[in-house]
Amino acid sequence: MSDSTLDTLHKSLDVIKILRCNMTGFFQLVGAGFRIDGTETDSQEDREKATRAVLIAETQKLKDNFTELEQAVLSLSHPAGPFNLGNTLYVNQEVAPDRVPLYTQLVDSYKWMEKVHEYSGTAYPVLSQNSLKRTYFNASISAKRRRSLVNSYIVAPEAVNSAIMGFSNSFNDIDIQILRPLGSNAVLNIILGRTLRSVAILKGWLIEWVVIRGFNEDMTKEDGTLNLWSESKYKVFQKVTDNANAAMLHFCAPTHPELSVKSFLTWLHSYITLFTQPCKKCGLHLSNNLPPTWRDLRTLDPYHEECKP
Fold first, then answer.
1. Strand, helix or coil for residue 209
2. Is the dihedral of CA 216, 217, 223, 227 positive or negative?
3. Torsion of CA 98, 103, 105, 111, to 10 degrees
């Protein structure tokens, strides 16, 4: 809708408000038995003439308002007609439109879908400028190089065990148990000091899933199997889980898969000071009743969610 059409529509609405006010005042005037008493020297005929003059002036004012409203409405463009709803028109044939306003709801749905198409068309060129893929290769590479991408998925279990155990032995306050309840892919049961517990699911070298829980929370189900999916009941560890999944995507490097896992575990190890180290920016231990739940991906400095750079 153009600016001129909007201006005309606003003007028409203003004229309607003025007309309604003048019409209400006129009916109140007539309903109250309007008359002009005049002076004692005026005759009855003069008083009636004065009363008629006032009424004529009021009706002329209403007439002018009607004329102005008519001109404003005629200047508006006519609607294009009802929406073409296709076969959905037949849905409403067996019911009374005043009882089931299905057509109005369908029109709202169509308008909403049109907005979705419009917004998605605007968002696509913006998002296409940013690479959201977990790979450094584009779609135009040869088939031979595309097949090489699966190397990070196909890894000997012994190689994964050796690398993970080597990382675990380099720190005294982290314990990593390697399980394989899903076949050849490893599941890491991580215990970080007395601060938190974590489950990380690997597919080869690629980290597929991470969940963080408190040190006092059970990591197994009632049947004794490892609980892979349930989130923590504590808000602080829910925040850490969200940040861990963001870090998982950040450190993903298909060209150096083993390094990506070690970088992620090094980042996760920085949470050993979750409840002891203050925020790097504000210097406080708590903000909104939460400790610094974010760790910088390069420097590993702690930050609150609202303080992180």
1. strand
2. negative
3. -150
